[in-house]
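Good day; I would like, with your permission, to put a structural problem before you. A protein sequence and the structure tokens that stand for its backbone fold form the material at issue. The record follows directly beneath this note:
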Amino acid sequence: MPKVVYAGSDGIERTIDAVSGESVMSTALRNGVPGILGECGGNNSCATCHVWVREEFRDAVGGPGDLEEDLLDLGVSDLRDSSRLGCQIVLTDELDGLTVDVPPTQP
């Protein structure tokens, strides 16, 4: 069972037990993580689950696909090289300990 650490802009880190095969977004929504809205329900059609993946996990998580990259470019004002949509990061046992930073605002 992988754990995910959500680091909020308030300085609070929330470590949550996730389920392999679930997304970073759905895990956050199921556990009431502040700042993750997931308005499209994980359909890769909004950017309200935007997170910044910590450097040490970027290779393991990988980069965004074309549609995700377009959504990030159009919908995120604080875009970084580590920006990803939480709905597009599928959790696996290999991502145990994944740490993401939740931006202070979502689109």
About this structure: The longest strand covers residues 3-7. Strands lie at 3-7, 13-17, 50-53, 83-85, 98-101. Residues 35 and 102 are 6 Å apart (CA to CA).
